[in-house]
Amino acid sequence: MAVRIVYPQEEGKDERSQDTTIEVGSVTGTYQRIDFSQIVYLFAEMVREEVRAMEARMIERIDRRIDELVERGNLEEGEGEVIVLRTIPREQAKKEILDLLDKYDKLYYGDIAEQLRLDLEQVVEIVGELEKEGKIEEAK
Amino acid sequence: MVTLFNKGDGIKGEKITVQCRKPNFGKRPISGTSRHKLQRGSLEGSVYCVIDKPIRSKKEN
User: Fold this and answer.
1) A 108-137 residues with CB below 8 A of B?
2) Domain presence at residue B10
3) Which of A42, A69, A81, A97 is the right S-S partner for A75, CB 3.0 to 4.6 Å?
4) Spatial distance between the Cα atoms of A133 and A97, rounded to a whole number of angstroms
């Protein structure tokens, strides 16, 4: 994909006038004019893809390092499993915690964080809110 | 819920769940009081600890 900025060629006008347009296309092919919101969307998509690729590369490196440590005897088999924490909206986290508690008699903060792959501190805060809302209670 | 930040603050409980970048626990047991063996170590890097408790759903009657 190529991006080019087309400035108006009129004499006496400042090059960066309101008529400046941005076009997207292939380097050797035709170009299509796009507006600013499309640029923002495309840029966001590019950043998202890059972040996903970086995350995958990091996890791969960590996995390889863990395998090395297991081979050298520094870690036991099964230890050091990589848990990728999820970042989800608070309301979704609340719902998932309530759904999880419906399946089990009782769970500890750590169990909830482990099962749902959420940050421990976030779990504690949300459980506190759910207790105040009267939806959950401490199990004896 | 209270979170303690000051150096020297301690927390005590039967079960404490932790999250951190670098746990350091030695494999040597330490003989504590009443002949119970203890382990000692440290946690470093964005450490968060909580005194854990069991929770359950509140069933509506």
Assistant:
1) 108-110, 112-113, 119-121, 124-125, 127-128, 131, 134-137
2) no
3) A69
4) 14
